[in-house]
Design goal:
About 5% of the residues lie in helices and about 45% in strands. It is built from two helices and 24 strands. The chain is mainly β. InterPro entries: KduI, KduI/IolB_isomerase, KduI_N, RmlC-like_jellyroll, RmlC_Cupin_sf. Belongs to the KduI family. Pathway: Glycan metabolism; pectin degradation; 2-dehydro-3-deoxy-D-gluconate from pectin: step 4/5. It holds the Pfam family KduI.
Length: about 280
């Protein structure tokens, strides 16, 4: 098999409050997303979300079902979104081919039986970061580029959070059941994302940090607003954020991150804000 996976169970705020560094990292951090010619996945019990990576090099890589799904094929009851953070790639969905370039996205709806990943140049392989959530309806497969995205510019250099939010797989751009994905790019000199921080009890979220310069790192903040914790992260790593948790980060340089969400509310603006002065 070219697919490997692990399962992460949900943790309560009370349980998480008592975790040390090793426990926080083993429960929430996804350290290795990309392996040559493999699909690596983490199945989390927060909204049955799956996050992972695909890096085809010398051969095509086929998306296979995994045991927790108890399904004959991966997308029998699921939808999938991906964003390419590597070289030019190709994704074949039931025989239809999509060229997916750097920072381009693809939504694949429920019921598609065959998904195949490939790179155009094995010396500069594609890196498909993928998210998947349970789905109740079959929506069409759709490629989304930054030109198609809903784009919002927020923050300022004075508060070190000047950033551009690219809403790629959201309800205003593409029909999905519950999955939403986008990409936030920080301007030079800015290091804070999603600040002021927030929670949204109706949705869980996963962050994938990339374009973190060599030798630099990201400090990801999580936990309840009055009981925060942190996880230090490297380039091309992801972190799971429970619905009850804040999710914000600051780094030693500017960077880009992909956010993916699932839950019962598709309203991007449905957030419970946390005043900066109230964080503990």
């Amino acid at each position: 098999m070219s697919t490997t996976y692990e399962t992460r169970y949900a943790s309560s705020p009370t349980e998480t409050k008592g975790m040390d560094t090793e426990a926080l990292r083993s429960n929430f951090l996804i350290e290795r997303l990309f392996e040559e010619n493999k699909i690596t996945l983490v199945y989390t019990h927060y909204d049955r979300y799956i996050a992972g990576g695909v890096m085809p090099i010398a051969q095509e890589v086929v998306l296979e079902t995994i045991d927790p799904l108890k399904a004959p094929y991966f997308l029998e009851r699921r939808e999938l979104g991906l964003i390419n953070i590597g070289g030019a790639g190709i994704v074949k969905v039931d025989g239809e081919s999509f060229d997916i370039g750097f920072k381009e996205a693809l939504y694949i709806g429920k019921g598609k039986k065959e998904v195949i990943f490939a790179s155009k140049d094995q010396n500069n392989p594609a890196k498909f970061y993928i998210n998947s959530a349970p789905a109740h309806h079959a929506y069409p497969t759709k490629k989304v580029t930054k030109a198609d995205a809903e784009i919002v510019e927020l923050g300022s250099l004075e508060t070190a959070n000047h950033r551009v939010i690219n809403k790629l797989l959201v309800s205003s751009v593409v029909e999905t059941c519950q999955l939403q994905m986008g990409m936030t790019e920080l301007k030079t000199g800015s290091v804070w994302n999603t600040m002021p921080a927030h929670t949204h009890d109706r949705r869980m979220e996963v962050y994938c940090y990339f374009e973190v310069p060599q030798g630099q790192a990201v400090c990801h903040f999580m936990g309840q607003p009055q009981e925060t914790r942190h996880i230090w992260m490297q380039n091309e790593q992801a972190v799971i954020s429970p619905p009850w948790s804040v999710h914000a980060g600051a780094a030693t340089s500017n960077y880009t991150f992909i956010w993916g969400m699932a839950g019962e509310n598709m309203d991007y603006g449905d957030m419970d804000g946390c005043a900066i002065t109230e964080l503990r």
